[in-house]
Amino acid sequence: MKSTITVLHAINPTFGFPKSTDAPKVYKEVAKLEQPAFDLEKAYEATNNISRCWLLNEGVTSQLTEARSTSVDDVFEHEARYYRVERRGFGEIDKPEIVVAS
Hints:
Blueprint: E1 3-10, E2 26-35, H1 40-46, E3 60-61, E4 75-78, E5 81-85, E6 90-93, E7 97-99
Parallel strand pairs: 2-7
Antiparallel strand pairs: 1-2, 1-4, 2-3, 4-5, 5-6
């Protein structure tokens, strides 16, 4: 069964500095990612600019023409559960404030 992940980037990212307790509170949706199965590690890899802009990767749907790589403090949403990218791994969080990208 296919899995869809919503990619949320922090409006004012701290990239993990100072502490994750000071993580951004407001996010914008930048893309949807369709995967064969739910996998946060693969979602992270698919949303990073490695050899090309990640918006061109298979399974990515976005209205944007460019985007920074997903980084510490950004969030993935899957089936109404939210996972923040931590310095090491991912942590489940409550639903953050999400604004509509302009």
